[in-house]
Design the sequence.
């Protein structure tokens, strides 16, 4: 499947956002499936819902991959989960025990180490997968983020070469993407669950502006939906939203 063969990384000193760069190419029909773009500095890094992604110049990894995937949109909802799992597995190789947080983050003991943003080019084909991984961020920079954040350096007390980290992440990503494309999310689901943050805990999930759901996080569905057990003992599934731990 040539569409998921990742290409050599194209490095930029500066981009507004690696996702935006690849989305622009995809919209113009110039996106090459498997293209990988990384920026040493992003001037307008983004998260979901126009949230900002903060990353000091040269310190961390911010990169994106374009996949012209011939897979229905519904199936592609599991893509951020697969990417999160691949990131976690590459972190194992650096001695960092991380967890996947539904739907699109990687955490260490509740602190965010990596954010993942999958976006479809409006009017274009395929999907752009953006990854922000805090590599050498210092604790003082992490304290400047509005929610608990961490980095590989904070977790290990060592500095890492960003290129070397990216090579490991891409190798894991390549292998998990291949499995996902050939066998579907079902082949990845158990491994994802085994590393899921907050499994068995009470969560609050907001779906859009007004709808808030609560329940115990018990499973992940075949389409990547979060499955909660509500106080009435019913299983409810949530396709998209923001999940947080219920305050005691
Ligand atoms: P949540 O953490 O609730 O799941 P989200 O997945 O919507 O949020 P993203 O869109 O992935 O979050 O990322 C944006 C948010 O991440 C920002 O609003 C900020 O709180 C936080 N953030 C920004 N930069 C960093 C960073 N370098 N490391 C960790 N967290 C960050």
Sequence:
């Amino acid at each position: 499947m040539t569409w998921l063969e990742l290409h050599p990384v194209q490095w930029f000193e500066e981009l507004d956002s690696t996702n935006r760069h690849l989305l622009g190419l995809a919209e113009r029909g110039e996106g090459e499936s498997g293209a990988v773009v990384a920026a040493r500095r992003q001037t307008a890094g983004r998260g979901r819902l126009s949230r900002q992604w903060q990353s000091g110049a040269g310190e961390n990894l911010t990169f994106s991959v374009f996949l012209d995937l011939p897979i229905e949109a519904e199936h592609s909802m599991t893509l951020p989960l697969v990417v999160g799992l691949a990131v976690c597995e590459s972190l194992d190789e650096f001695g960092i025990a991380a967890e996947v947080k539904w739907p699109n983050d990687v955490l260490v003991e509740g602190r965010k180490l990596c954010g993942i943003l999958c976006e479809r080019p409006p009017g274009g084909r395929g999907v752009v997968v953006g990854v922000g991984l805090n590599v050498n961020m210092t604790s003082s920079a992490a304290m400047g983020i509005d929610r608990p954040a961490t980095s590989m350096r904070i977790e290990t007390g060592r500095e890492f070469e960003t290129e070397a980290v990216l090579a490991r992440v891409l190798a894991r990503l390549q292998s998990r993407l291949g499995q996902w494309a050939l066998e579907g999310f079902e082949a990845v689901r158990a491994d994802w669950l085994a590393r899921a943050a907050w499994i068995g805990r009470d969560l609050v999930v907001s779906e859009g502006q007004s709808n808030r759901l609560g329940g115990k996080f018990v499973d992940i569905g075949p389409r990547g939906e979060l499955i909660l057990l509500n106080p009435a003992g019913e299983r409810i599934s949530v396709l998209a939203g923001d999940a947080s731990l219920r305050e005691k």
In short: The mean pLDDT is 94. The longest helix spans residues 162-183.
